[in-house]
Amino acid sequence: MASSVWKGMISFGLVSIPIRLYAAARTKRTYLHQIHKECNTRLKQPLFCPHCNRMVERSEVIKGYEYETGQYVLIDGDEIKKITPPSGKTMEIMTFLEEGAVDPIYFDSSFVAMPEPHAEKPYLLLLKALEDTKKMGVAKVTMHQREYTVFIRARNHGLTLHTMYYQNEIAAVEGYGTTNDVKLKPEEIKLADQLVESLSAPFKPEAYKDEFQSRLNELIEAKLKGKALPAAPKAGKAPVIDMMEALKKSLAGQGARPPKIASGQSDRQRRRAS
User: Fold this and answer.
1) What is the pLDDT of residues 44-76, one digit of tens each?
2) Residue 146: which CATH number?
3) Which of 106, 182, 211, 227 is the most buried (most CB within 10 A)?
4) Kind and range of the H or E run holding 271
């Protein structure tokens, strides 16, 4: 089984649940290393101290904050333990929210929470309460030298946690959301809505794949066997056409019929919509 990333308790009210956290999702990629072109040797980044002019062991490494160039405040492991808040061992649920109350942009990493032996009953109690009320808990947990706000929710008959991006971590892009000066025709909206409906389908996560990573693995396999791999087909450049015409052609490709235009429209409006 995968190694846990945190061990402690979830508490709500007077109920405490000993748990372990496991990463719920990790990026899976084929990584390319840096190779010395002259001798095909992988390049490394060793722990080297330029002052002592030698390699150092992991046991010789401590943390340090650079407050001026070349000047550091040194902090050891015991000092870090002393400043770790209670959330380092217990994530106390502060409040509960409706399941859909949080914009997904605030969701960061995901973890699954597993109960420790003999803690199955309180674990199930919290899970059942979240399922029945369709709510999720908000708590804090300290791990990896940072305190996170987390959302605890029921998923597939278990507890899943998501760390939260803080408000100051959400990028503010000038001009985002300011499109009030753009006017849309009712026919355009109707066609766009119909196109969305024609492309709608149940969510099947297995249907989505990283095509680049797949082709990278195929390239590696082909080179190992001394074969050539054909290049990926290039997407044709879309011609610049009228938006109504683009919507109609998109719908035609989906086998859907565009809505009829009201008989009261002028010939000029009909020509624009055709």
Assistant:
1) 777 788 888 888 888 888 888 888 888 888 888
2) 2.40.290.10
3) 106
4) helix 267-273
